[in-house]
Design brief:
The chain has 371 residues and is mostly helical. It is 68% helix and 2% strand. It has one domain.
Amino acid sequence: MLTVIAIWIYILVTAYITGYAVLACLCRRFFSYSGREKKRRIYQVRHRTAYLFAGLAVNTLYAEIFSLFHGVGLEANLVLVAICVLLLLFFSKEAKKECSECFLKIRLTKSAWFFVGVFLVMAYGTSHGYAHYDTGLYHAQAIHWIESFGVVKGLGNLHVRLAYNSAAFPLCALYSFSFFKGQSFHTVSGFFCLVLAFQCLELRDIARRRALLISDVARLVALLYLYSVYDEMISPASDYFVTVLVFYIVIAYLDLSVKKERSYAPYAFLFLLSVYALTIKLSAGMMVWVAVKPAVMLFRERGRKAWKVLAALFLLAGLVEVPFLLRNVLLSGWLIYPFAGLDLFAVDWKIPKGELLYDAKEIGAYGRGYH
């Protein structure tokens, strides 16, 4: 449990720094007009869990890119720490202000013990429990390959499940600390659950406002999910990562709707987060519908000029997807595995089409039979 706590503190610091830096830049770019004067207003992030999820997404992208050239281990962490130090120096004034605001808010709301309690409870669950069946089958092996060698051409030919590319695996490799004792510490899925649990602490406001909001209902459902996976968070299964992200996106979207948020910036962030969820598990593809909201708001505010911002937004989405797709091609020879509809590459390490089709049918049969 102490190991989990130490690793989580490291994840929290690095993810918060990179997430704050990225969102600070995005908020300066994605601004909204208020009133008839059309005065520029920079969007202020209201929930600090957004910084954490943004940082986790950025660090995942970093780990994916790093894995294209090298194993994701000690060197990757040293570079990450160096990047965080540079970002702290660049955002030194903002960092001091952010820290003071965080401590002030915690002191005024007297919520420190809530956060510490949730942190310890979730750390205990992550350090105990039962491993997911697929963790022993291929999750742990796929992560270990990334730790040692990065992406390996044609690895899926060794075992087809090693071609099941998920952006969660490079992130797990980045924070596994296998270079210390040769053993991987799979704590990232538990950290995702921790951030969602922090988001659910907003339920304390129900007593103060004496009303139940639609976003509160989503938080209650999220708590039920966290309870159901509490003894399985030790596994680096992509299902946990993507489900937590979906819950967070839905809760954040409902919060914005309840507060009638006028800026399209937070909706744009949720769209990018949904694209990130897509790289973790393709079943999250339907979450991309959140792009509709910022698009409509953009055209209402800017008209024809909205195309420039939309183009930039979709360019960022493409940057999130490209490393994931490159890893797909290198692992299996297919742009999306196991999907034969996009047969674009004729590389030597390509998994035979017959094997791909059989694997796809096996997955479908298992899903229908099991569920």
